[in-house]
Amino acid sequence: MSSLPHSQPRISFASLTPNNLGTVRKLNSVLFPIKYSEKFYQDILLPETEDFCKLVYYNDIPVGTICCRLETTDGITKLYLMTMGVLAPYRSRGLGSQSLKQVITAAATHLAPKIDSIYLHVQISNGAAKTFYERHGFKELAVHENYYKKLVPHDAWILERKIEGVEEQA
Amino acid sequence: MAPSGIPPKRALPSKESTLFKELLNLYESRQLKKGLKTADQILKKFPEHGETVCMKGLILTHMGRREEGIDLVKKGVRLDLTSHIVWHVFGLIQKGEKNYEEALKSYTQALKFDKENMNILRDAAHLQTQLRLFDGLVDTRHTLLKLRPNLRQNWIGLAVAYHLNGSIDEAKKVLEHYESTLKNIPDYDVEHSEVLLYHIRLLEDLGLYQEAVSLLDVNAKSRAIIDRTAIMEYRARLLTKLGEHDEAEQTWHALIEQNPDSYEYFRGYFSNRSIDLDNITKETRLKAVESLREFSSQLPRAAAPRRLALDVAVGDEFKALAEPYLFSGLDKGIPSLFADIKALYRDDEKQHAIASIVEALRERLSSQPQSNSSESEPPTTYLWTLYFLAQHYSHISDHQRALQLLDLALEHTPTLPELLMYKARVLKRLGDPFGAARSMDEARVLDLQDRFLNTKCAKYRLRAGLEEEAQEVLGLFTKKDASSPAADLEDMQSLLFLTEDADAQKRNGAYGLALKKYHAVQKVFNEVEDDQYDFHGYSLRRFTLNIYLNLIPWEDHLRSHPAYIHTAIAAAQIYIELHDDPSLATKASSSSHLSEAEKKAKKKAKKAAQKSQEEAKKAATQAASTNEDKGLEPTAPKDDDPTGTKLLEHAGALDRAWKLLSPLVTLAEDNIDAQLVIYDVAVRRSKYLQAAKALKQAKSLDADHPELHLRLVDFRQRVSSLPQIPPEPIGSVVKGAIAELIPDEVSLETYNSQYVQRHSTSGKAVLASGKVLQKLNTPIAEVESALFGALNPEVVLDIPTAIDVLELLKNVKSERAEEFRNACDVKFVSSTVFKSPKELAEMRLKAFATAAGEEEQTKPEEAS
User: Fold this and answer.
1) B168 by DSSP, 3-state: which?
2) Which of B273, B277, B274 is nearest to B264 (CA)?
3) Is B87 a domain residue?
4) What are phi and psi of B282, to 5 degrees?
5) Residue B855: its pLDDT value, please?
6) Is the dihedral of CA B59, B62, B63, B67 positive or negative?
7) Quick check: A127 pLDDT over 70?
8) How deeply is B549 buried, as exposed, middle or buried, from its count of CB atoms within 10 A (0-12, 13-18, 19+)?
9) Which end of chain B is more exposed for a tag (fewer CB within 10 A), N or C?
10) How far apart are CA B384 and CA B331, in angstroms?
């Protein structure tokens, strides 16, 4: 049997709405060892995070998510990457990279408020994830000890990437 | 001055006469308030003036004061029986009530006193069409044409009338005459174009193909016919019929190039080459496949020639064609691929070929390493392959294998709703309506804005008997200001909802509510039938003749729609049960025995009634002050029987059933279930000829049908126990029919045992013979042991039949019913329908995707 003549895969993104939240819940339940609170699901629907919370589609099937929230302290706004994940059969196909790029680009063009940086936690056992983020310009900032209460190991790296904002036209 | 010849009581002095004319004008322009004032002005002096009384009544009816208005109209008619106006008004009112027959009588009466009134003639023609009184219609159209020969639509009206009356030749003559009188037709005249196409269609119907082609060609060239596609379609068809095969082939070819996915064009193309795609023979197969291959390579984006080739090809050729077809569908992720090719499964060889192609693909893809190399298939192809195979195995009744594949697919990608939907379907087939409903609900919550998923979920909840929970999800998509989701769906004529809801109520034993919904379906069909009325005028006015002449026969076959047939049968079955056991009705209607559902329905109806009352009050206060035209159709009356209690009444139950069934005598001739229930009702109404006819028809459809076997015994038993045979000539006809249906010399006991011996491996036959034994007053132990025969390993017993057997055991108060239930519960491993009532109550909770009380973490812990 010869190889099938297959079409070019389509990768696309969709904003989160109350209507597709069930798909996000389903993905989170199989992707992450943690059950997220209702607060989490309320926050990702906030209008200001629309550009930073997406469903990832592969050939029109939802197979991954990326969810961030905005955090402002002392007048500086950072983007915190809460979750990013792609179903196992769809990994190593550039979906994660594309999702991350999409969010970084959205952050760079975000003006009110201007976003200073994007950061996240990675469990210290997950070297592959760390490498992945470093490839996208993230740097290790610190180790957050006992970050995970229920997971072992308990510690997590904090990774950060500065956002170079697109200069406003003079 | 009143003209002479007017009866004195109608004549008015000139002031009032002018007022009356004004009144007519005000009515025409629907200035109702002013009209009412004017009428009152006349009536002050001449309270007995019939025409004015009628007009006042008509205006009041338009203003929503219906009862008062109609009383006045009737009074007005009595006051002046020879006025065409009063009869016209009366006819309008009756037409508004959809009482077409009475309306036509009034119009006929009006025409007696004003033979040449165009409005009345036109309305009468529409009524005659609605009532299919085509002889009268031809006369009326003739009169109209004579009165106004310069109106184009009067000519067309007459031609159409002849056509409907079956005189196509006359219709043709009228058209020829009409066309010869035409002068100065503007360019691009759509109406004229339609008339010409109609003319050509008539010629085709008359078999005058040469004449038809000539007329087509002349008018296509002169651009008098402007529908280019229609020209080509007519031309291709006519040339084929004429035997001009080369020219026809070119035209079909051109049509296919225009729309390469029209199966009709391909059928036409091949029929021109004497190949009937639906009946391929050894001789035609090769040619057809070859030519379809050619089309496929010429038209790379067209699906139709590729799919048709699968119908036609066999053996290795089929395999060679099926493989790329299936691969391409799986690669593109076409959800309906299995539904598309399922028809090929009638051929065992093709079924096996398809299964082995897709199985081989699955094996290859499952062993493929998960990598992103560009040669490897996208993971979605594997997913769609699993989905396809699950459907394949469920279709060939290997439901467990289907479930395994679906679980594998869900592990791979849990977010594809199709997988959960199909899992629901497999669980349903395995007899687990609760698990099925849950799976459908899981699919629904993946995408709440998908109405299809929503409707499916509601349907599965109804199938699981969860009536209220079904309404909850339906309510997410219905109008928020409707009194209930069900009321809105009834307004929207949702046959799916009405049918499923009624069936659910019937299964739950709430017969009143079930009948309400079954009658609601009937109402929908009445409305569709009424809706055609407007087209009798519209289609002639706008010259949309060809489609109109397709509409009329379609309307005549309206009630052959599956939803009508199903609901008519189901409702009649309830009526038969009520007739045979009147205590069912009293049980159901005494309020102490009201089921939960009925109580709720009562409450809801009360609320709705209150709402409508308030609205009516509001409307009444407004009516006096506004000009708003409420039309002549009566508003829906208040529902004074929300639980359907009146429908349960013994008296008239069979008549109500017959009213539903009578259209099926001819429209469902080939439906054995319909014929059997027609028998059931006819025989109980002592219509023995009708009963015999239905049985004969059923026997011609399937002589060994188990339910027919039961009826044959029933018929002989009933007729032989009649105190006296029906009067001649019916008596001997019935006797002859029985002799023909069931051999005279054998006893019914022997007849029954012979039947079950002939069909010893059929569960349905076992059930039917059990019913017969009970009918013949056999000791209960014998009935029981016969019915338990259904559990023998060599007997093919499906779940619905097993449920019926259990029901029968319960009905005859068998002590072994519980034993049978337990045995079925063991036999049908994955089913839940044979669980005990207590277990079932717990099962209900299984039917929902989101279970309450899930633990929640307060602080989110993020994982990346």
Assistant:
1) helix
2) B277
3) yes
4) -55, -40
5) 38
6) positive
7) yes
8) middle
9) N
10) 8
Pairing between β-strand A139-144 and β-strand A61-73 as defined by DSSP bridges: unpaired
Q: Which residue in A36, A41, A57, A80 is the catalytic one? A: A80
**Chain centroid to CA B730: how far?**
35
Taking residue B223's Cβ as centre, other Cβ atoms within 10 Å add up to 11
Q: Give the whole-angstrom CA distance, residue A124 versus residue A152.
A: 10
pLDDT band at A169 (very low <50, low <70, confident <90, very high): very low
Residue A70 has what DSSP assignment?
Answer: E
Is B250 among the domain residues? no
pLDDT for the residue numbered B375? 60
Residue of B nearest to A25 (CA): B446
Residues with Cβ within 8 Å of B85's Cβ and at least 6 positions away in sequence, in order, are B51, B54, B55, B110
- Report the distance separating Cα B6 and Cα B51, nearest Å: 13
- ipTM, 2 decimals? 0.94
Mean pLDDT of A125-136: 94
User: Could you tell me the residue range of the domain that residue B65 belongs to?
Assistant: 7-115
H-helix or E-strand spanning residue A63 = strand A61-73
Looking at residue B764, its amino acid is: K
Select from B100, B115, B130 the last residue of a domain. B115
Q: Is residue B235 in a domain?
A: no
Residues of A in contact with B378 (CB under 8 A): 6, 9, 58-59
Q: Closest to B861 (Cβ–Cβ): which among A3, A61, A149? A: A149
Listed by number, the residues of chain A in 44-73 with a beta carbon closer than 8 Å to a beta carbon of chain B are 58-63
Residue-wise pLDDT tens digits, B6-25: 777 888 888 999 999 999 99
How far apart are alpha carbons B263 and B250 in whole angstroms? Answer: 17
> Are B360 and A1 within 8 A, CB to CB?
yes
Domain ranges of chain A: 11-164
Q: How far apart (Å, rounded) are the C-alpha atoms in residues B350 and B320?
A: 12
Single residue among B591, B615, B639 that ends a domain in this structure: B615
What is the domain count for chain B? Answer: 2
Select from A11, A32, A41, A61 the residue whose CB has the most chain B CBs within 10 Å, as the one to mutate to test that interface: A61
List, in sequence order, the alpha helices (H) in B704-836: 706-720, 730-741, 748-758, 763-775, 780-788, 799-811, 817-827
Cα–Cα distance measured from residue B169 to residue B178, given in angstroms and rounded to the nearest whole number:
14
Kindly report the nearest CA distance between residue A168 and chain B, in angstroms.
33
pLDDT at position B860 is 40
- Which of A36, A121, A136, A154 is catalytic? The answer is A121
Buried b (16+ CB within 10 A) or exposed e, A22-38: bbbbbbbeebbebebee
Active site residue A121: yes
| A14 vs B: CB within 8 A | no
CA A64 to chain centre: 10
* pLDDT given at position B458: 97
Q: Are B63 and B628 in contact (CB under 8 A)?
A: yes
A158 - beta bridge partners?
Answer: A121, A142
pTM, rounded to two decimals? 0.90
* Residue segments in chain B with a per-residue pLDDT below the cut of 70: 1-5, 369-375, 587-627, 850-864
Of A58, A61, A132, A54, the closest CA to residue A99 belongs to: A54
Instruction: Supply the pLDDT for residue B379.
Output: 94
Tokens of B624: 């006096």
In a domain, B542, yes or no: yes
Tokens of B541: 């006015």
CATH class of this structure's domain A11-164 = alpha beta
